[in-house]
Amino acid sequence: MVGKYKVVTLCGSTRFKDEFMKVQKELTLKGYIVISVGLFGHSGDSEVWENMDEGTLTKTKEMLDDMHKRKIDMSDEIFVINVDGYIGDSTKSEIEYAKKTGKKIKYLE
After folding, report:
1. Domain span at residue 54?
2. Which is nearest to 90 in space by CA: 19, 52, 82, 100?
3. What residues are paired with 104 via a beta bridge?
4. Could you read off the pLDDT tens digit of each residue along the chain, which spans 109 residues?
5. What is the tally of structural domains in the chain?
6. Residue 3 falls within a domain, yes or no?
7. Which of 3, 21, 25, 66 minimizes the number of CB atoms within 10 Å of its CB?
8. pTM of the predicted model, to two decimals?
């Protein structure tokens, strides 16, 4: 909690960019401080991965996964963007981390 505002981190597949943006706006208007993903690697930010060798790609994905867990550390809760119930491996890992660290978990669906 930062002052009177709860902090929430959005989790989910980056293929759901439109839903991330919609939920971010809705939660902001409800008085949350919203932390989101830094880039949408599966829907629009593919240039990030271009020209990366496999080793660099792996290290970058590991860094992004770790950064997202640090975002969860700063949050009171997480909000899972699970369109049509879809939850991928990275998101499952983030949900488990949130449970382990005692964060409240809410789901879009």
Report:
1. 10-14+20-107
2. 82
3. 77
4. 888 999 999 999 989 999 999 999 999 999 999 999 988 876 666 777 788 888 888 888 889 889 999 999 999 999 999 999 999 999 999 999 999 999 999 999 9
5. 1
6. no
7. 3
8. 0.90
